[in-house]
Each structure stands twice: as C-alpha cells, then as structure tokens.
Amino acid sequence: MPPPLPLPPDDLGLFTDLYELTMAQAFYQQGMLAPATFSLFIRNYPPDRGYFVSAGLEDVLDYLENLRFSPASLDYLRSTGIFTDDLLQYLSKLRFTGSVRAIPEGRLFFANEPVLEVTAPIIEAQLSETFIINQMNFQVLLASKAARCCWAAPGRVISDFATRRTHGVDAALKMARCGYIAGFQSTSNVLAAQRYGIPPAGTMAHSFITSFPSESEAFRAYAAAFPGRTVLLLDTYDTIEGAWRAVPVAKELEAAGRRLLAVRLDSGDFADLSRRVRRILDEAGLEYVQILASGGLDEFELESLVKGGAPIDIFGVGTKVGVSADAPYSDMADKLVVYDGRPVMKLSPGKVSPPGAKQVFRLRDESGKFLRDIIAREDERLPGGERLLEPVMAGGRRTGPQPTLDEMRSRFQQDFQQLDDHHKRLRNPPRYPVVASPSLERLTLQVQDQIASAEQE
Amino acid sequence: MPPPLPLPPDDLGLFTDLYELTMAQAFYQQGMLAPATFSLFIRNYPPDRGYFVSAGLEDVLDYLENLRFSPASLDYLRSTGIFTDDLLQYLSKLRFTGSVRAIPEGRLFFANEPVLEVTAPIIEAQLSETFIINQMNFQVLLASKAARCCWAAPGRVISDFATRRTHGVDAALKMARCGYIAGFQSTSNVLAAQRYGIPPAGTMAHSFITSFPSESEAFRAYAAAFPGRTVLLLDTYDTIEGAWRAVPVAKELEAAGRRLLAVRLDSGDFADLSRRVRRILDEAGLEYVQILASGGLDEFELESLVKGGAPIDIFGVGTKVGVSADAPYSDMADKLVVYDGRPVMKLSPGKVSPPGAKQVFRLRDESGKFLRDIIAREDERLPGGERLLEPVMAGGRRTGPQPTLDEMRSRFQQDFQQLDDHHKRLRNPPRYPVVASPSLERLTLQVQDQIASAEQE
To answer: What are the extents of the domains in chain A?
Structure first.
C-alpha cells in the first residue's frame, strides 16, 4: 500500500478534497465552464493577533503552473466509479489557464482583506481551492508567529530550530521559509537552507555529550572538529558546571588563535542561568563568547527574557513557534465571489462576506505610516490609496520573475516599520482599521436582495 | 531560488538539523563509529491526554531504507565550508545499516515508554533522529486526537475533512492516514485516499450553491450528476429553508428510484438545527436521509452533541482535529541511551531518563484488560508480560512485510477495547500505571554515579 517515501508525487492533481471533483462533475454536466473568481481571506484574528504576514504565494503559483492529472491519477478516479468518462477526458487535458492577483509575500494584511484572488474557468478555480488554502493558511500563521518573535526580541538573533516539532516534512521546510521572511537569521533544517538559500545553523545535541565518557572530552572533541565555529551545549548534566568546563576549552581555542563562538542553554530558568553563565564567562575574560538559549521559547517568553535584561544573544525557537501553538489554525476561507460575471455570496450565520472581485487600498499619513485599509470593488479608483493586490499570474503563467526570499524579507521590514506599534502588541492588540468602500457595501445589499428574490419560487 | 514544487526531492538526506551533520563531522574525526542506541519516547502527556496511539513507523522505515546523500546534496554541504572532504566522502556512501525495534502502529502506549529504538553506527543513528521525531511526533498526536473523536461519538461515522487546515501537504496526507488507523471511516483528501486505500468522501461546497442562480437549481444539478450519492449542503443561505428545499429534490430522486443520501449542516447550533432538520425530513417521509455535520468540530463538541442526543449520523472533522488544536505538540525526545556498549543518560533538570536499550512489558488481567506496563532493560525477562517493542528492521532492511492500514486499524481497536475507560476520559484522565523495573532503576543509579565520578577531573 503506502508509497516508498512519505512525499507525494509531482502530480498534485489529486491533492484536493473529493467534493472539488464531484462539483467539477456537476459543473461539467451542466455545461458550466464560465469563469469564476474566488477570494481568499481570514475572517477573524486568532487570539492575540493584530496583523497577518502574507506567505505561501510562490508555492501556490508553482502548484497552478504544474496542475495536471496523470494517467495513474485518472485511473484512480475511474476506479472510484464516481466520475463519467467525459469528465475524466476533460481532466486529462486540464491545465490552469486563469489569472491570480495577490498581496505579495512579506507584506502585511488584516482580517477580512482578500490576500489572493483567482479568476479561472470554474472547474479549474474550484479544484485548486484545497491546495491554496492548505498552503496559504499555515504559511501565513507561521510567518505571523515568526514576526511576533522578532518584535519581542529586538536586536537579538533568532534561528528556526522547529523541524522536529512541525507537522511533517512540508511544514518544516515552510517554517524555515516563513521564519526567514519575517526576520529570522537562519534555520537548523539543512534541506530548507539548501532549497531557499537560508543560512544553516546548528550546534550539538545532548547525545553528543553523552556519547563521550565525560562532558569535557565531548567539548574538546567538538572544538577540535570546528575550531572556528564551536558552540558548546551546557545543560547535559548541570548548566553551571558545564559553563565552568567550557572555560578551559575556550582558553585552549584562544591559545590556538581561535575563539569560542557561543555556549547554549537548553533547559532551566534562562533568566537566572544566562546571568550566572555570563558572569562566569566574563570573569574568565571571555566577554566575546555569546549565549544562545533554546527550548520551549515563544514570543511571550522572548519578550519576558528581553525585557528582564537576560544576557542572551541568540534565541533558537522550535516547538511552540513551529506549530504556532497558541494559534495553530485560522478561519481562512476561499469564497466564490463572481460566477460568469455575476457577483455572488453566501449568507450562512457568521459567514457573510461581500460579493465581487476586490481590491484593497492602503492609506498612509505623510510620514508613510499606515492609517487604514479600504476593501473596495476591484474596478474602483481610490486616489492616494495604494493597491495591495497585484497581478501575479495570467493565462496560467507567472506575469513576472519570482521574487527572492530576501525581497520578501525586505517587504516585510518596510511594511512592519509603518504599522503603528500598538497593533504589534503580543496580547490583545487593538484592531487596525479596515472598512468596506460605499460601493462595495451597496453591491453587498444588492446581491442579498437578489438572492432573496431568486428563492421566491 | 525555490524549487518547482512545494515538495522535497526523493533525496531526504539533507532533511536533518545541521547539528546532526556537525556532530557527524566530530564523531568521524574522533573515529567514533561504534553502534549507538537511541530511544524515542514522550515524557509528559499533553493536556487531557491519557494514552498515545503509535503512528508514523512505516514512514520512518521508508526513510531509513532510502536514506542517502545525492551528489547535489554533497555539493551543497561542500559549499557551506563546514565539512571536511573525508566526511563528505563518507556521507556519499552512507546507507542506514542498523536495526529498529518499535511498538507497531495502531497500538497504545503511554508516557515515558520507548515507542521506537534505533541501533546503528552512531553517525547513521544521529543523522536520522530529526526525521524520525518529525514524523512520529505529529503522527502520534494526530492518531491520538482521532482516537479521542471516535471515543466521543460511538456508533457514528467520522470522516477526515482537515486537508485545508493541516500544516502543509505532508500533514494533510498523514492526517488522513492517522484518522483511518484510529477509526475514521473516510477522508476528503483524494491523494490520501489513493495512496493509502482509504475510502474518499465528499459532498459540495457553498461555492457550488452560489454559482447557481438559486439554491434549488444547485440542488437539482447535483442530484442530476450523482443520483446515487447526493448529499445536499443546507446552510448557504439559511439551514431550515435549505432543508425545506431539499425535500422536493429528495422526492424527485425517489420518483426516479433513487434515494437522497444525506444533508449537511456546516454552521450554526448543530444540536438545535439537527433536530429541526430531522423533523422536516421525517415529516416528509424521508427517515432514511442521514444528517452530516461539519465545521469546527472536535472530540469535546462531538461528545456534547452525542450525549445531548443530537440526531447527527456522520461527522466531518477538520480544523481542530487536523492540527490537534488543544495539543499541537508533544515533548517527544530521542535520547542516546547506549554508545559502544556503554549505557548513557543526561541529567538536565526535568529531562532525566533511564539509560540503556529497553523493552516495555504489558501486564493484563485474566480477561485481557490492561493492568500496567513495566519499562525494563531490553534483555530482561518478565514472565506473563507482553513485549510491546518488536524488531521491524535489521541490517537496514525491514524484517517483515509492511502491515496494511487495516491491520493497524484492527490493532488499535483491539488495544483500545482493553484499556480501562477512565483513561479515555476527554478531560483530566487518570494516569495509566507505568513503572520501571528494579533492574532498570539500579542501572539508572549506577550510570548517574559513573557520570559524577567521570567529571572529577
């Protein structure tokens, strides 16, 4: 049964919810092949969130450029007995031919704002919905979590150590990517470092220490292997004793014309231990040796350590960041807003959202600070407003070159500087002002009326 | 920069933390190539958890059988300037040659019990640690979450609808897999259905309804496409009005010799709506039409609905289950317990665990019910105790055929029946008794003493 590796094939056509395909069957039978627009947004902020960082778009565009159904996939679909031969024939030739507009990765956006809109023949748009939400939802969550960590620890270096706690292979790679977009310096994941061009980072595990007869022997063996980049892990047996044992190793490195880079704390009370270890190092003349802390850290812990003045230079964040532990999901939705030129919407309780393709305009004060955003109809003009959704795909092809991760990282830094600090608070931030344009509000009322009258059957 | 698809290559050698490779360099330089044993366990229960379901082993074995470093990976490692040519040469030939013992997938295990032990030359064992934790940690969490859902809704059908909220592609596939092991009936993810042989399930989205001028037209179009398997989504505009509109469509299906399978609620107060919809259906002579509910459901909500007698036949679970929202991470650790025949351990505060390779023995009463587990040294004998860790890999190859997902599902059912119900409680379950054998306790004290004396340098 299972495949040889825990990874899906290049053919991602089947990576979709069954209902996308059953709806495709019904659309096909009805001859409904007209263009549809789907709008992707997050309705509500997860707890303590005041902004979102756009992330995941490049993966969506890669997917759309490669969307297809292999013969094996078509055989599987045939074997279910659910689909007609003519639909399978249609799927065998299906490629994504539509267009995409999106808020570029790294930019800030807010609740209810469309971050991505797809316009394509309805079957293509509907089929791709599952993958689009799957990628955008969690990458936005991870990038936003990482942004909160960087905000909490200004001037400190943060590295992604989350691979072992993320939910699988894809999540580990994307955590590294999203962390870097939002300001992390490096990742422990070597595959992510290779694929995304992120600096790799790493020290040693407790197993390295315990594999030697004594901690001192382990320290010396590591320093011998990496005289230029040694970081010693102190807490395998006792952090303070570990610090005392690190001192002679650092002195031996000095004697060889090298320098111990850092020591690492991985358990215990970091506020207290970092001060005690700093004192031991300083009194030994090792002021240049940095202190790295890792283990159970998130933005709340970082803020508390940094505000408390803990002498920690580098933070390795893992578990709680890699799963966005306090907000592991959002209510991101991908709604049909136009079919065949007709604006549409649903009215489910608590799930009403305006119809029609949209644009988000951002207004700033004279210094560039964000004032508010306006969600408008796509074809509106709003003098002085910056259009956030940009065309990124047309006719199933990217409209421009792929941005580098460093460009996304710069975009984030630029946007983040212009957002008022109180929206960045880690607890209960006030809502950034987002309103609908009068024209969009009128359209919403109009469509609600049309739905009511259509059902007077 | 980024690769064409959001998936890693077949070559997973680089899917590891950098420190696994820097430690490999140091081990290599020290000539430390002796066998090591690593032991994988979860130290503490996440909130409200009283048991764990073993999951992820087949992915680990696939990985170990395929572990290698491609020329491109070696080129990347060389480009970092961190590694010596002779280590890269060693890595170019590296294959996993070790052995694995594990608690089979689907079986229950408890905190502090080793669920998997790897014995291999230390570099091979160390390198594979990252992937092993990455897969086992989240698959155990997802399988355990799914088991809780099934327990909360006895006799009801549960389907995995989580793909859009899981953390990426790998997580979506594994959610489907873990759900099925723990008793779900189906998955919405078509790729997972194909790969794992799980029944696919799906209905229709709100976008299907809104793409038609009226809800009734949408219902009829779907029924025309799938006369034998129609499920109508009721809440796009108003659930009760939707139910009234479903009745004539069901009657038309009856007239054509077919039956409406089910209706689906996706928002609102399910306890109330399910009763009102049930009444509408029953009064129309549609007692056979089932009710499916989806949207924000987890084990707590399922328990409340089922205990309250809500007439819901099928539950689609997504968001909160797919990320194990109340427990998105565990503290699973993979500890070096033996190097070169010498039992080892670390003493970090709160992180002490016994040294040496281990076996877990399970004791039962005369009816087969679990009484308690005993963590012992691997070579101990414990008459009447069932050995939970089984050899699954030797010399880098599986020792037996791959079990099917249905076999894992049966194992889970068998174990789960034998666990006392109070450990299955959704809130604050009491701890299942797990103790260390006297011989393991003696070894632990011995090794602690050795560490203390080794450091009297």
So the answer is: 18-143+329-454, 152-322
The CA-based dihedral angle spanning residues B293, B297, B303, B309, taken in that order and rounded to the nearest 10 degrees: -20
Rounded to a whole number of angstroms, the distance from the CA of B51 to the nearest CA of chain A is 19
CB neighbour list of residue B208: distance below 8 Å, 6 or more residues apart: A23, A26, A27, A126, B218, B222, B233
B78 and A CB contact within 8 Å:
no
Sheet harboring B332-339: ordered strands across? B342-343, B332-339, B35-42, B116-121, B99-102, B390-394, B397-398
Read off the tokens for B114.
Answer: 């080793």
* Burial (CB count within 10 angstroms: exposed 0-12, middle 13-18, buried 19+), residue B3: middle
B117 CB within 8 Å of a chain A CB: no
Q: Where are the beta strands (DSSP E) in B166-318?
A: 186-187, 231-233, 262-265, 290-294, 314-317
| DSSP 8-class letter at B214 | S
**What are the pLDDT tens digits along chain A (457 aa)?**
333 333 444 578 999 999 999 999 999 999 999 999 999 999 999 999 999 999 999 999 999 999 999 999 999 999 999 999 999 999 999 999 999 999 999 999 999 999 999 999 999 999 999 999 999 999 999 999 999 999 999 999 999 999 999 999 999 999 999 999 999 999 999 999 999 999 999 989 999 999 999 999 999 999 999 998 999 999 999 999 999 999 999 999 999 999 999 999 999 999 999 999 999 999 999 999 999 999 999 999 999 999 999 999 999 999 999 999 999 999 999 999 999 999 998 877 776 789 999 999 999 999 999 999 999 999 999 999 999 999 999 999 999 999 999 999 999 999 999 999 999 999 999 999 999 999 999 999 999 888 888 766 5
Measured N-to-C along each axis, helices A85-93 and A18-29 cross at an angle, to the nearest 10 degrees, of 110
CATH for B18-143+330-454, among 3.20.140.10, 3.40.50.720, 3.40.190.10, 3.30.450.20?
Answer: 3.20.140.10
Residue positions counted in chain A: 457
B435 interfacial to chain A (CB closer than 8 Å)? no
Q: What is the rounded distance in angstroms from the CA atom of residue B289 to the CA atom of residue B262?
A: 5
Question: Would you tell me how many other CB atoms lie within 10 Å of the CB of residue A95?
Answer: 12
By CA distance, what is A129's nearest residue in B? B164
Considering only CB atoms, which chain B residues are within 8 Å of A17?
A: 161, 163-164, 188-190, 202
Q: Which two tokens stand for residue A99?
A: 């267009």
CATH homologous superfamily for the domain B150-322: Aldolase class I (3.20.20.70)
Chain-centroid distance, C-alpha A226: 33
Looking at B385-425, which runs of residues are DSSP E strands?
386-387, 390-394, 397-398
Looking at the complex, does the CB of residue B43 fall below 8 Å from at least one CB of chain A? no
Domain A152-322, classified CATH 3.90.180.10, yes or no: no
Report whether CATH 3.30.450.40 matches the domain A18-143+329-454: no
Token pair of A281 as six digits: 């190092």
Structure tokens at A141: 């969550």
* Token pair belonging to A455: 């059902």
